[in-house]
Design goal:
The protein has 491 residues and is of the alpha/beta class. It contains 20 helices and 15 strands. Strands 2-1-3-4-5-6-7 form a 7-stranded mixed beta sheet, with helices on both faces. The chain has a 6-stranded parallel beta sheet with strand order 8-11-12-13-14-15.
Length: 491
C-alpha cells in the first residue's frame, strides 16, 4: 500500500538569476520558506501526511522540480508563493507560472494549488492566467485542511477553483485566531536546513557562517496601511496577532540546538512594537546566552519613544540589527503615503538611540513616491548619507498587486510592468511607477545613481572597514562592481 503524502508544499526555484541578476550568485540571501514550514506543521498536526520541496534551496530547475514531484507522487501539490515579504513576492510568479505548466503537462491528474501573497491579491486573474486547478486566498491554513479532508469546494472558505471557463469561490477566508494554540508546530525537519544563506550584510563580521541561518515570524499582520504595501491583501485586517514569547523561544531553541543556527532574521512587519511581546523574548534569549546575530524590523516613531533600557536589553539578547522603514527624507512626501505621524527629527533620534546601544541598522529608502521630484529624491539621498546605515536598501516605488498604489494605478491607467518580472527591483525588466514630475526611467536611473553614490562613498567604506574589517570593505566593493542591466534604460 502506498504511503504517499496528502500534499507537498513547493517553494519554487530557478528565480535567483532572473530576480537579482549577477547579485544572486553571492549577495542575495537564500531564505527559509517559513510559510511552507508553518503550513506543513499545521496540516501535520491535523493528521495529514505532508512533505516540502524547497526547489530554491536545493537549486533545482523547473524540470528537476517536476521530476522530484513525480517521485513523491502526492495527492495535491501546493506551490507556496510567499517570498520574504508581500512586497517582494510578485516577481516569482513568472517561475511559478512556468512550473504550473510543466506540472500539468506531466502529471495532469494531480490537483495543483497556488497559495501566498500574490494569489491572494489577484485570485481571479491568477486562476485565469496560470495552469493551476485551485487557489487559496488568505492565510490558507483552514482552507488546505478542509480541502484535504474532502469537504465540498463550495463550503471551503478561501478556496477558488475553475469549472471550465468559469471561476468560482467559496466563502470569505478566515484567519487563525490564536496563533500559539492553533499553529504550535513549525516543520523545520522537512526543510534542508543546511542550504539556507543569511543576507551578506548580517555577516560582515564573519562570512564563514552565512549558512547557519533561519528566518521566522513571531507575529502576523500590521495595524498600519502604507499605500505602497500589499500585506493586507492576505490578512484582510489591520491588526497584529502574536505568538506567545514562550512559543518564539521554543522555536529559537530548536533552531540553535538542533540545527546550529547563529543568524536569525525576524520577518514581522513590526517586531519592536509591543514591549509585552518583544521584551520577554529578549530576556529569555539573555538567559540562554546563545550569542546570536538577529535582525528585526522596528518602526521609527516607536523606536523614537522607546526607553533606552529596552534597546539595551535587545542588544544583550543578540539583536545586532534593526531595520527601519525611513522611506524618504522629505516630510511632505512621507505624508503622501500615510507615514506622516513623525518627522525627520524622530528619524534622527531613532537612529541615534540604536547606535547609542551598539545596534547597527538597515534602512529602507524609496524613490519615486507620489509627489517625488529630483529635489525630494535628493533629500532622501542626503538623509541616507547623513545617517550612514551599515546597509540601506534603496527601492523604487512599485504598484504591488494588493496595494493601494496598485488600485490607483489601474484606476488612473498608469502603465504597469508587462510581466511579473517587471516588479523585481534588481531585475533587467524592472519598471517602477512614474511620479507627477518624473518618468519611470528617470526614477530608476536616479535610484541606481543613489546605489553607486552611497556604497562607493569613501566615508562609508572607511566606516565599514573600521567596524568590520578589510574583508567586509572588499565585499562591498565586489558588490558595487556588478552593474545591473536595465531594459528601461536601454541596456
Amino acid at each position: 500500500m502506498k504511503n504517499n503524502p496528502d500534499i507537498v508544499l513547493v517553494n519554487v526555484g530557478g528565480t535567483r538569476k532572473q530576480v537579482y541578476q549577477d547579485l544572486g550568485k553571492v549577495f542575495s540571501a537564500i531564505d527559509t520558506p517559513f510559510w511552507a514550514a508553518l503550513t506543513a506543521g499545521y496540516l501535520r498536526g491535523k493528521g495529514f501526511k505532508v512533505n516540502i520541496l524547497d526547489a530554491n534551496a536545493l537549486n533545482l530547475d523547473l524540470d528537476e522540480t517536476v521530476e522530484a514531484l513525480v517521485k513523491i507522487d502526492p495527492r495535491f501539490i501546493a506551490i507556496v508563493c510567499y517570498s520574504q515579504q508581500a512586497n517582494v513576492s510578485t516577481p516569482i510568479m513568472v517561475a511559478v507560472g512556468q512550473l504550473c505548466r510543466k506540472i500539468k503537462g506531466t502529471i495532469p491528474e494531480t490537483g495543483l494549488i497556488l497559495t501566498g501573497w500574490h494569489p491572494s491579491a489577484l485570485p481571479e486573474r491568477t486562476l485565469r492566467e496560470e495552469a493551476c486547478d485551485m487557489l487559496v486566498k488568505g492565510e490558507g491554513f483552514y482552507t488546505l485542511a478542509d480541502l484535504l479532508a474532502g469537504k465540498d469546494f463550495s463550503e471551503i472558505p478561501g478556496l477558488w477553483w475553475k469549472d471550465g471557463s468559469e471561476i468560482l469561490c467559496g466563502p470569505a477566508p478566515e484567519n487563525i485566531k490564536d496563533l500559539t494554540a492553533e499553529l504550535p508546530d513549525v516543520a523545520w525537519d522537512l526543510l534542508p536546513m543546511d542550504n539556507y544563506r543569511a543576507f551578506s550584510w548580517m555577516c560582515l563580521h564573519d562570512f564563514s557562517e552565512r549558512t547557519k541561518f533561519a528566518s521566522i515570524f513571531t507575529s502576523l499582520g500590521c495595524p498600519y496601511r502604507c499605500s505602497f504595501c500589499a500585506i493586507h491583501a492576505t490578512y484582510g485586517e489591520h491588526r497584529i496577532r502574536y505568538w506567545s514569547p514562550e512559543w518564539v523561544l521554543r522555536q529559537i531553541d530548536i533552531l540553535v540546538n538542533d540545527y546550529g543556527v547563529r543568524h536569525i532574521n525576524i520577518h514581522d512587519e513590526l517586531f519592536v512594537f509591543n514591549t509585552k511581546h518583544y521584551l520577554p523574548i529578549a530576556e529569555g534569549l539573555i538567559e540562554r546566552g546563545y550569542n546570536l546575530n538577529i535582525n528585526a524590523f522596528a518602526r521609527v516613531d516607536v523606536l523614537d519613544k522607546a526607553e533606552t533600557q529596552n534597546l539595551i536589553t535587545l542588544r544583550k539578547a543578540g539583536f545586532q540589527w534593526l531595520k527601519l522603514g525611513i522611506e524618504t527624507g522629505n516630510s511632505s512626501i512621507r505624508a503622501n503615503v500615510g507615514k506622516d505621524s513623525y518627522g525627520i527629527d524622530a528619524v534622527r533620534n531613532a537612529v541615534a538611540k540604536a547606535h547609542g546601544v551598539g545596534i547597527d541598522f538597515c534602512a529602507n529608502f524609496m524613490f519615486g513616491l507620489p509627489g517625488d521630484d529630483y529635489n525630494s529624491m535628493q533629500d532622501t539621498l542626503n538623509l541616507a548619507l547623513e545617517l550612514m546605515p551599515v546597509f540601506p536598501s534603496f527601492f523604487c516605488t512599485m504598484a504591488i498587486p494588493g496595494s493601494d498604489l496598485y488600485s490607483e494605478a489601474l484606476e488612473k491607467e498608469i502603465p504597469l510592468p508587462d510581466t511579473w518580472l517587471g516588479y523585481a527591483s534588481q531585475g533587467y525588466e524592472f519598471k517602477p511607477l512614474p511620479t507627477e514630475h518624473l518618468s519611470a526611467a528617470q526614477v530608476l536611473e536616479f535610484r541606481d545613481y543613489v546605489f553607486d553614490t552611497y556604497f562607493k562613498n569613501p566615508k562609508y567604506l572607511h566606516m565599514i572597514e573600521t567596524k568590520f574589517g578589510n574583508e567586509a570593505r572588499e565585499h562591498i566593493k565586489e558588490m558595487t562592481a556588478i552593474k545591473l542591466k536595465r531594459k528601461l534604460l536601454g541596456d
